[in-house]
Amino acid sequence: MDIHLFESKTLQLPSPIQELNISQFKEANVRVFVKRDDLIHPIISGNKWRKLREYIRLAKEFPQLPLVSFGGAYSNHLYALAYIGHEFKIPTMGIIRGKELNKSSNPFLEQMFNWGMELHFISREDYKEKISPIKRDSILIPEGGYSEIGINGIQNLVSELENFNPSHIVTAVGTGTTALGIHKYWKKPVIGILTLNNLAEIQQHEEELNSSGITWKTDYIMGKYAKETPIINDFCQSFEEQHQIKIEPIYTGRMFYGLYDMIAKKAFPEGSTILAIHTGGIKLPN
Description:
It is built from twelve helices and ten strands. By secondary structure, the chain is α/β, with parallel strands linked by helices. The chain has two domains: 3-45 and 149-277, Rossmann fold, CATH 3.40.50.1100; 66-136, Rossmann fold. Helix 4 links the parallel strand 3 (67-71) and strand 4 (92-97). The chain is globular, with a radius of gyration of 19 Å. Pfam families: PALP (PF00291).
């Protein structure tokens, strides 16, 4: 299938931009908008599609090579990759953390297998070292999609801002791919709100790309990665009730919580126009 045809027929692109109107923002004299990448598609929403898009193009050039990547048992990244492989008839392989697991361990893995992804389960020790059991030639996508290829996919997001000119862009940070990609093509203030304790890794990525100028915020990690906290859970529920926008507690919940807190602390100059990137997320398959 052609990428452009798939985008026009299957995806909601460009994704809409929605303003959040609450008294807190008016009192701070700032405007806050959300780039609704969560609406791109139910499964490959947000930065999942952005980061994988250019890998599809590469796979089309080398159809004999499977797309291979790493992830946990509930990896949104691998789930999206499996779906893309199914839709584009591209062979995919997932290297899963946890040798004790199998394709029937949870609905995510089962669905990925049913979409045709070849699953390989490895020990946590091998996973930490990213030791791949796959010996054949392949196209390797780093965990979470971080790579120069993944970053280049963010260009399409930035191109959709041609008629919108915010003073700041804020995004959640896992591997840093989205923030680094936005900064590469936008060249204005970007704030990345980290969701796990990997600032050293993020800064290493900056050095690799010879990039600088992104503000990395570590104030809202709140403990161990993916560990739920009552504060963020309550915030996500309140946010959805207030704006009718679903967010999840691992990435977008922490990002929006941090953004609200920064505005309350007057971290943005008066008159700022802030664009928050809703990087998506998926529901547990039925």
